[in-house]
Amino acid sequence: MGPFEYKVIRIDGDYAHLLRTDNGGDETITVAMALLPDGIDEGTMLLWENLEYSII
Asked: For 35-48, what is each residue's pLDDT tens digit?
């Protein structure tokens, strides 16, 4: 599956809320910060591929 593009729209403590940007949808997913790369902040663009997130 993938690759999929996401945008970090909100960070709540140990969790980040991501919006998928490559399909025009408006649903968000919640992901534990431990699964995301270091240095992300609100507005960061991410790529999910091979079960791993990376900063675009």
From this structure: 999 999 999 999 99
